[in-house]
Amino acid sequence: MATIRRHIGYLKTTYSLPRPRLLYGNRTGLRLAVPSSSHQLVASGVFCVRQTFPSQSLTQTLRLRLQAHSHTKADTQGKRAEMKYVLVTGGVVSGLGKGVTASSVGVVLKACGLRVTSIKIDPYLNTDAGTMSPFEHGEVFVLDDGGEVDLDLGNYERFLDLTLTRDNNITTGKIYQSVLEKERRGDYLGKTVQVVPHITDAIKNWIEAVAVIPVDGKEGPADVCVIELGGTVGDIESMPFIEALRQLSFSVGQDNFCLIHVSLIPVLGVVGEQKTKPTQHSVRELRALGLTPHLLACRSAQPLLGSTKEKLSQFCHVPAGNILNIHDVPNIWHVPLLLRNQNAHLSILKQLNLDLAIPPALEDWTRMAETFDNLTKSVRIALVGKYVGLSDSYLSVVKALLHACIACSLKPSIDWIAASDLEEDSAKLTPEAHTAAWETLRNAACVLVPGGFGDRGVRGMILAAKYARENNVPYLGICLGMQISVIEFARSVLNLESANSTEFDGQTPNPVVIFMPEGSRTHMGSTMRLGSRRTLFQMPDCITSKLYHNSEYVDERHRHRYEVNPEVIGNLEEAGLKFVGKDDSGKRMEILELPDHPFYVGVQFHPEFKSRPGRPSALFLGLILAATGQLEAYLARYQNGS
């Protein structure tokens, strides 16, 4: 009790809590009551925070619930229901779609009336995904709190309509860093720090702490936490996580833990038979590590045969009714419907001892999936980028285009253009690629230049921006794409031929894009301007403001370390380029427009990260509307705030 009192004192000082009163405290956490006047400290009445404290008597990761008096009724009604965990693992090969499967499981459970949260475990040693190449790992998804995370968290947010935190992405780097920091502080009191129990305990504590953080805008913890373990069962780097999850399954009890194993059922071209042996070996490996799957999610090109399911059931010790088939479908919105049609929710609810008679309400998902399948008209979009060799490098951009196109009853037809193929050097070295790239650009209805880093392909992007500006082709520049449009305008309109970004030419005499003062030149990870930031509209009659329904401001996610040079703003605006959105200081440019152009918009933020099915990003919607000649009619509806 004395230790708990010390922690209350620590919290009182750290969070300026007036007269906190202990409601509950033990080895797993604290629950305090604070006066209702402290609502500014208590978001929606409940504030969950993950914090490490200098003590060894409580768990290393302490869970808090700071509950206002107006919301203490729930605390007096008994112990909260235990958290239910659904673990999704993968076998045989990587890239089977564990993320989509985990997201779809969450969708089905949410449609049954449960509140769902998600955690992604990445076994790599990186602290986060921020410094990883898009070619190697796909895009870096950015969260509201500035977390640079795996792209699967983007799937979770889009499918489940959540707002996750950086702690919802667990990496080996984060775990080892937290354990080593505790060891340096002496928290282990001279004990030998080992993978078991210290690393595994840190993993379990992290999972249990993050699982109770509300991420759906409601108060209190979710009902079910869906955990995706990245990689493939048997990978050496995932062994500590497998062991920690084995211990977690034992500690929470079999009624609170459900394991879904995603595996591949290949068909050999010569034989033409669905082969179950790879899945058998994968399940055997998993069971040898102490985990037995309750359900199998089998990926295949075609639906599984009955004989294949029987064979899997016999050799993998999984009931035939729990063997799910996720075969190839026209679009991923069909995956939750596949699970629903195979009664996956009933199997999961039975394993978790949840008695819910509500059938999954998936009418909206059914409508979206069928609407997309029935679309016949398309719009051609030229995506001019650096990483076009891997579509996952721009996954959120692709999804945002999809959401916007469906809102316009169109299918997106994305023409991937490597920016370097547009450059003059390409005309000499690879003339065929150069000709094809320009032909593709000229045939597109609109041009999009997404974010990126480094100077490769920059000259091609500048040529694409110039083409769109001079030929009245709708243009959207995101992050680097906005900076590209500034460089092109300065060169072509202001006649500053040497205008450039200091990222590409540190000695340029005309730096129109500069390194941000608060950035670090020595460390790359988590040193950019990250997360949700507010942009204030400067001109209420601009296109962007109208697309955001005449809002005075917009909160969007950022990821950049260079910005438009404030010293050149006056010259650029005098020449016709208008900066219609700025940050709250008024010195950092966020949105630019070209007033005499049908749609020429550049934004420093990344609007794609907050696009959702049925709620497309305003700027992506504007791009597609402009490309199809519908923008003026759409904006007319919001001319006077209507």
Automatic annotation (TrEMBL):
Report any Pfam family annotated for this entry.
CTP_synth_N
PROSITE patterns attached to this UniProt entry:
GATASE_TYPE_1
Q: Which GO terms describe its molecular function?
A: ATP binding; CTP synthase activity; identical protein binding
Asked whether the UniProt record includes Transcription regulation among its keywords, one would answer no
What pathway is it annotated to?
Answer: Pyrimidine metabolism; CTP biosynthesis via de novo pathway; CTP from UDP: step 2/2
Gene Ontology terms: biological process: 'de novo' CTP biosynthetic process; pyrimidine nucleobase biosynthetic process
Keywords, A to Z, come to: ATP-binding, Glutamine amidotransferase, Ligase, Nucleotide-binding, Pyrimidine biosynthesis
Q: Which InterPro entries match?
A: CTP_synthase, CTP_synthase_N, GATASE, GATase1_CTP_Synthase
Ranges for domain CTP synthase N-terminal come to 84-354
Q: What is its EC number?
A: 6.3.4.2
Membrane-crossing segments per the record:
none
Q: Which reaction does it catalyse?
A: UTP + L-glutamine + ATP + H2O = CTP + L-glutamate + ADP + phosphate + 2 H(+)
Query: What positions does the domain Glutamine amidotransferase occupy?
Result: 391-624
Top enzyme category: ligase
Q: Does the keyword Nucleotide-binding apply?
A: yes
User: What function does the entry list?
Assistant: Catalyzes the ATP-dependent amination of UTP to CTP with either L-glutamine or ammonia as the source of nitrogen.
Query: What family is this protein classified in?
Result: Belongs to the CTP synthase family.
> What's the protein called, per UniProt?
CTP synthase
Which species is this record about? Carya illinoinensis (Pecan)
